[in-house]
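hi!! sorry for the late reply, been swamped w classes. u asked for the two structures so here they r. pasted raw, havent cleaned anything up. first the sequence of the first protein and right below it the tokens
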Amino acid sequence: MPRLPRPCLMLVTDRRLCHGISLPEAARLAVEAGVSAVQFRERDLPAGEQLELAAQVKRSIGSRALFIVNDRVDVALALGADGVQLPESGLPVAEARRLLGPDALIGRSVHSLQGAIAAERAGADYLIFGPVYATRTHPGAPPAGRQALREVAQAVSIPVLAIGGVAAEQVREVLQAGAAGAAVVSAILGTFDPKAAAAALVAKLT
């Protein structure tokens, strides 16, 4: 089974944020700079278009980073993805495991301590917790804060990635709170130089 690198920087995709380049190209540049996992999350696209674009992203990053598909177990299965990221209200972990097999990496997005504990008990391999800070990708979501992140990281034994408003300046803060890394969207894709932005984030992981 593939394992989440520690520390881990995961790029979560949103093609609408890309400036002048395609999503596959942005993902390739980010991985070249040290991003260790790419989560394909284009939930507004129909299944066929998701499959096509996800295949392009997967090809662009090759074997240099983990390739995770958000929610769509069927797309993950069709592409031979390394794993799937399940929303908190998505498929049960056990059902995703049954469909994808024992070697798939299965993450769960959680927003509370109780959700984190339940996800670990259900068999999730890692968690994404947030939003830790205020974030423009979810402007109405109140930030949970670093203390909540710390409580989650201490309560579970599986890796926890922080998401939500994590920029280069916050990477070391979330690591100090116990996170195994960060998952970011606009901090890379919302810039004019995704490779440089990713490199700045990676530099803070060490």
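now the second protein. again sequence first, tokens right under
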Amino acid sequence: MKGRYLVISELFLPTKGGTAVWFDEVYRRLGDRDTHILTASVPGGEEHDREHPNRVHRLRLRHSRWLRPSSLPVYTKLLLKGMWLGLWHRFDAIHAGRVLPEGWVGVYLARLLRLPLVIYAHGEEITTWRRSPRRLKAMTFAYRRADRVVANSEFTRDRLLELGVDPGRIVIIHPGVDLQVFHPDQQIADLRQGLGLGAGQKLILSVGRLSRRKGFDQVIRSLPELLRGGLDAHYAIIGIGEDHDYLRELAIEQGVAERVHLLGHVERADLPRWYCAAELFAMPNREIDGDTEGFGMVFVEAAACGTPSLAGQAGGTGAAVLDEQTGLRVDGADAAAVAQALARLLGDEELRRRLAEAGRLRAESELAWERVAEKTAVL
């Protein structure tokens, strides 16, 4: 029997990002029309929801320019709509996609509707938001009152423990991957040709928001060293963000502008093809002003496509990339270490093959969305 959940997640497809993918993938497997998704209204949402197995309710969630706190309309809309749905439908539990605003709203809905509450924790929201006393207090309040808190990694679990969350209520569930979409058997010739890559040239790929903590700038800084070492490498970056101009200018400064390809958004159907087109996936993340990577779903997508990864050591990426087993991890703040690891991976085909095989097998056996859904069902 399918579960009956009220899922509150401001982030939901077609919104970009791993969190939005996570909730779409899991609850379409866990529930049917008796599971209701309460989320934000975004462009393309109506088209996406038309064929969705769950019932999706979208609200215009906008911060106020006049009220304080400015987020009050968001909390109010989620609370009122959630209460209305709870009175008209029988749910087994409330699942909140993040601690703020969803988890805080979920605490009151769970009390009013007498339902268990699950809150998801992703890591970076804790390390970033805890610098605000007001948000720290609100986060702690919500996490401590949840019946279960889902941590996406051991790193995130440890941050929850620092907030005083009962360890018996914390469950670690890693994000997953759709093995029907992400697999090694992809057509890639046109992608490599489009970048002007010939035989023997290596492609490094990154996917994610163009923000400093992702470490994309460190890969660009590594390219001159790779070239001096005889590695004919190009670098493609998929994503948009505030660092676009910075990365473009850095590539010019390093003399590698013709080898750095800022691709922006790509069609989701083409994403697995890009993973397969690359010899190596790289996101040497680092922590900047408390902002860090909680897990890194992109590493799992790359692994499912048979592409080994280079990750940073900050945050929870150790749960996504097993060092020396499915990829390598280095200090993302150390440009020399990043360059050395890239050279090692690009220069050793047997190492890449071994890491890729182990990563693919782990993705298939442990990290398929079906496995994630099974773990979520017993919360």
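hope this helps!! also noticed smth abt the second:
The longest strand covers residues 202-207.
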